[in-house]
User: What shape does this take?
Amino acid sequence: PWHDISMEGLQRRGVHFLGCHTALEFQVRELVKQESLSAAPETIVREMLEHLQPGSLMVVAMVAAMAMLQGKGQYSYLKV
Assistant: This one.
């Protein structure tokens, strides 16, 4: 089990995954602009949120979430 580095395997070992809603909205707006997509950014964001990895959490602002986690003394941050 320790060789399983999938999200599901890591979640079974107690890892919690957070996503930043603010960053998601920014990235989707840039993608729509760069690729000249016809879909509204809000529609794409909504669809992406519907397909969030089960057990993961989307926070409003990662900066605020990180400050709260840092106050608890344990966190790890990975920018993808």
Observations:
- The radius of gyration is 15 Å.
- The mean pLDDT is 90.
- Strands lie at 18-20, 57-59.
- Residues 19 and 80 are 10 Å apart (CA to CA).
